[in-house]
Amino acid sequence: MKRTSKRDGALSIGGSDLKDVIDGARRSFLMKAGLGLGLGAVAAADVLGITTANATIGPSPRASYTPNLGTKGTGVYPARAKRVIYIHMLGANSTPDLWEYKPTLVKLNGQPMPASELGTQKLSSMSSGQTAFLCRAPMAPMHQYGQSRVWVSDLLPYMSGIVDDLCFIRSMYTVQLNHDPAGVLLHTGFQLPGRPSAGAWISYALGNDNTNLPSFIVMTSGVGQGVPLDTSDWSAGFLPSEFQGAELRSGVDPVLYLNNLGGMTAEERRKQLDALSDLAKADFRSSQDPDILSRIRQYEMSYRMQHSIPEIVDFSDESQSVVDMYGPDAMKPGTFAHNCLIARRLSERGVKFITLYAMGWDHHFQLTTLLPARCKEFDQPAAALVRDLKQRGMLEDTLVVCGSEFGRTPFAQGSITGAWGRDHHGGNFTWWMAGAGTRAGYTHGETDDFNYNVIGKPVTTYDLNATMLRLLGIDHERLTYLYLGRNYRLTDQFGDVVNEVISSGISSLG
């Protein structure tokens, strides 16, 4: 991995460098003045992008609440992305079966992988004891599609229709071979829990465009198959707790503990929050603990979400043609299709970072049964999300990224017949991106003839996060937070922007 150079002379104070602290103080002053003066309030509304659609519930005049503008405002560089929809195919989808055709695997199907090839990668404990590592051809035919002539499995017919809108990264790799540390590394930049996730970092940096919804929302679908869904993946870590991802669930209560307790009216809830705010302000004056104000802002957000969340999950204003585009599961809460449609609705309302966990991709065995089922759940909604954003003009400033924590082996786990599967593989795997300044129809990186090693333009998870931040206008080396005497960042001490995946106009920056 390539270690990036640090900037000389950077001064960090209270979680950011000096310029950012000054900028933050300026924004804080404007907002506090703006919420108290008529003209200032208009200016604040303009800065926040507040409209009648996203600012119908106002704070109490006594509430200790100011909208979050972020520490960096609009970022360092010209931003191409205003928001991110981050799709994690949890469990690791199979690159050899879905995204990358290798004639060598077809030719050598059933024959041992060359020893010279096997010796280049770590094996997981689940296959390291095998006596034979037999090449396994893709389980379904693959064909080239679009003007970009990208190989896609027949298991993904809808995705094959949008390849010219996508930017593929074939050369992802990771050193982690177990789901939990690989997933935590992907989302937080470190393999152990405890650090802020990407959504938390971005919310901290760029603030919130909608005072009635959190800036970071998480949704899940599918069955985990024993693969841990670690809440640290959307944790705020050591950042203020208000930046943690809010989990939107299926069922009667999309957000837990949001509704008033039995017998409590909205007016009583408002009075309760005002009283709590008074106590919190008194406590803050004596303790100067910033998390106290952060918690009050969370309580205020919960109050607003009592009105905004029901509207988000109500599809009555969606046309039947749009619902049909997302597939037969679009109206079933808890499905990937349903979550994709909610993600588009959240994006329209200014939510900065939306993570969709599509679970169930860990196919050590019974791949021929399980993989087609997962593809059927995933294919049409994922393609529809990109198409829907594009037809609304939102793909221009919405970044969609999709992939897994690692890949899967080109050799079979167990026998190549019957209930065969594929083991974990960190040596290479594929991600795709769409929209917000990414190069549509471009494929980045190259792997060897066995789809086992990266042989051109390697990309780490640090690089992926650095590139995502760049598209949002953020320099990943400058987005830092001072904690326990050290400046931390999402990309830890690594990461390079992958300029080749960014379309002309900003690809030469930095």
Topology:
Layout: E1 12-13, E2 16-17, H1 18-34, H2 38-48, E3 83-90, H3 95-98, H4 103-107, H5 115-118, E4 142-145, E5 150-153, H6 157-160, E6 166-172, H7 179-188, H8 198-206, E7 216-221, E8 246-247, H9 266-287, H10 290-312, H11 320-325, H12 336-348, E9 353-359, H13 367-391, E10 398-403, E11 407-408, E12 424-425, E13 429-434, E14 442-444, E15 446-447, E16 454-456, H14 461-471, E17 481-483, E18 486-488
Parallel strand pairs: 3-9, 3-10, 6-14, 7-8, 7-9
Antiparallel strand pairs: 1-2, 4-5, 6-13, 10-13, 11-12, 15-16, 17-18
Helix pairs in contact: 1-2, 9-10, 12-13
Task: Summarize the entry for a quick read.
The protein has 510 residues and is of the alpha/beta class. The chain has helices at 18-34, 38-48, 95-98, 103-107, 115-118, 157-160, 179-188, 198-206, 266-287, 290-312, 320-325, 336-348, 367-391, 461-471; strands at residues 12-13, 16-17, 83-90, 142-145, 150-153, 166-172, 216-221, 246-247, 353-359, 398-403, 407-408, 424-425, 429-434, 442-444, 446-447, 454-456, 481-483, 486-488.
